[in-house]
Amino acid sequence: MWVGHVISGTSLDWIIPREHFNSGKLRVWVQAKNQLGSAKSLEVVFNTADIIKLPPPKVTSSHQEELEISWNSTCDEQQLSAGPCDVRFQREADQDWLQDGDIIHGSYTINSPQACTIYEIQVRCSCDIGLKSDWSASHRIRSPETAPVGELDVWQDCGISQESSDCVLAWKKLPISAACGVILGYEARLSYNNGTLVLVNVSVAEPKDSLVCGEMQCHFTTSLKGVSTVSISAYNAQGATVPSYLAMPIPGKEKTEQAIHLTMNEENLTVSWGLSTQLSDNLKEYVVQYKQAGGPPGQGFDWVKVKKNQTTGLFKGRYTKYTPYKVSLFTLSHSREVHHLSSVIGYSLEGSPSSVPSFQVFSIAATQVTLFWKSVPLSKQNGVILYYQIVADSRVDGQNVYNVSAPPNTFKLLHLSPGQEYEVRIRAVTAAGAGVNATAKFKTKHLEDFGHVIFRVVSGILSLVVICVATLYCACRGEKKACLPCFYYKVPDARNSQIFRNKNQINDPWASTCIPIYEPHPKISLLEVVEVQRWAFKSSLEKSSNNDRLTRPLVGDECSQMDCKEDQKEEAAAEECPRTDHRYGREEYSKMVDSDEERDREEENREDCWSSSEENQSTSGYEKHFMPTACEVLKV
C-alpha cells in the first residue's frame, strides 16, 4: 500500500497507476495477513521525479589497433550527472555475451582479442538518478588486420552445359574470420593447353569489367576456353591466401551416370545420391551444384562440397517456380581433377507445359504413318516432361491414345485403315498435367493391286536385261574389233576407192606405201568406162581378187612411225605404213563383207553386163558397191 490507497490481493508485484499518485515523494510498504495475524514490511520512500529512463548511449569511435570503443552519454542533454555504464561483447560466430559493468569514463578496451575476428559490442548507461538505458545498437569492430588465412572455394560456372567455352571461373568470398582484414583484390594464374601461362590481377576497387562480385560469390567474365588448370588467391594489405587449384574437365570424356534424387521447394533444395562401391583412393570430395537455366554467369548458381563418405547436399535459397534448375554431381580428386558424374533437371513447383513447336507426318502408307515432333524448349516445359500423349482420331477407327516416352521424338502409327482421313494431336505431360495440343491431319493411301505391281517390276527388269544383252552383242560382235557403238551410221570412206588409189599412184610413186592425207571432201576425178568382152570378165575378177588378197592390210596394225602428209612424202617413203588409218577409226571399205545374198545378186548382174580385164583390174569394192556399172550407164 501507499499512503492514501490500499490494494489487496495475492500477487507478489503491483503496478501503481499514474492517476493514483502525484509527482513527489511516496511511502510504500507491504503488509501480509492471515487468520493468525499480520506482518508489515519496512517502508520505502522514493521521489517519482527520479523515475526516468534515458536513451542508450551512442558509440562515436573505435580503434582496431587496440580494439577500443568510445561513447557519449545522454545525461548531459537532461542536465544530469553521468552515472555508471555496462558493456557487453561477443564474437560474431558466438551466441553468448561477455559483460563488464560500472564503467564511468566513457570508453572500453577488449583485452587479448582473437585474431581475424569481428566483435559485436553494446553499451548501456544511467545518470546519477533514474534507471539504466536500453542496450545500444551493436557496433562491429575487427581485430587488428593480418594476412588472410585458408584458401578460396573455387569452382566453374558453365551454365547448363559442360563445355569449357561456356565456363567462367567462380569462387566464394572469404568469411571475415578468414579474410583477417579488407580484401583488396584477387590474383589468378591460367595455364592453357598450348603451354601459355596468363597472370590476371584484378582489384576489387577497380574491377574494369573483368570481375563481378555479389554478396557471397565472385567470378571472372572471361571464358575458360582452352584452359587446362587455374589457381587463384585473395590478398589484403598484409598478405595473400594459399593459392587454390582447379583442373578443367578433359573435353570429350564421358560422364559416369549415377542416379540423383531431388527434394525441392521454393526455399530448400536437398540432393542425394548412392554411395559408389568403387571409391578411388584419389577421391577427395563430392561437389554438388545447381544452375538456373538461362541465368547469366554467377546468378542462380551455387555449389557445395561434401566429404567422400557423405551422400547428401543441402542448399537454402529462393527458387523460382516453373523454372528449371540443373543439378549436377561431380567428384574432385586430391590432384584437383574434376569428373562429371551425372545431371538432372529439377523444379521447385511444376506447371503445365507449352505445346510442341513442330509436329509433322512422314512416310504416309496405306496402313501406317510416321510422326515426328520437336521437343518443348526447356524454358517452356514448366516441369519435368514425363511423356508425350498422342491421340489419333478417325471416323472408321475411332479414337486411340498412345503415351510415348520423351526421347526419341518419333512414333509410328500402325494398323490404320487405307484411304481414310485422320487427325492426330500431341501434347506434353508433366506431374502438374497435360499441356497444349499440336494438331496434324493426313489421309492414308489406297491399297494397290500387288499383281500389277509385280508385273510392272518384272517387265522392267526383263526389258533392262534385253537392252543390256543387245548392247553388248552390238558392241563386241567382231573379233579384234574396237567396240564402237553399233548404232552409228556407216559412212563409206572415199579414200578406199581404187580410182582414188590409182590417181595418187600416178601422181606420186611413193603414195603406194602410205595412206593418203586425210581430206574431209576428197575429189574423185577419174571415171573410165571401158567396153570389154563377156568372156574376159571372169578372168578379170579372179585377178582382182588375187590382187585384193595381196594388198589387203592386216587388221589391227597401227601406223606408229609417223604421219604421212603431203609436205612430208619423201620422209614417209622411208617407212612402210599400213593402209589402215586407226587415227580416225576407219578401215578399208574392201574389208566390209556384204551378205551372201547380196554378193550373188551382184555377180549375176555383172554377167549380164559388158566387162573387160582392164575394168576388173581398176575396179575396187568401193566402185562395185557405190558406182554404176557400165551396163547401167549405157541404159541411161
UniProtKB/TrEMBL annotation:
Annotated transmembrane regions: 453-475
Lipid metabolism in keyword set: no
Tree of life domain: Eukaryota
Region annotated Disordered, chain positions: 570-636
PROSITE patterns xref list: FN3
Membrane topology category: Single-pass type I membrane protein
Entry-linked SMART domains: FN3
Keyword terms: Glycoprotein, Membrane, Receptor, Repeat, Signal, Transmembrane, Transmembrane helix
Basic and acidic residues bias spans: 570-594
GO cellular component term, pick one: plasma membrane
Listed Polar residues bias regions: 610-621
Localization of this protein: Membrane
CDD domains registered for this protein in UniProt: FN3
UniProt keyword annotation of NADP present: no
Domain Fibronectin type-III span(s) in chain numbering: 353-449
Family: Belongs to the type I cytokine receptor family. Type 2 subfamily.
Protein name: Interleukin 12 receptor, beta 2a, like isoform X3
Source organism of the structure: Cottoperca gobio
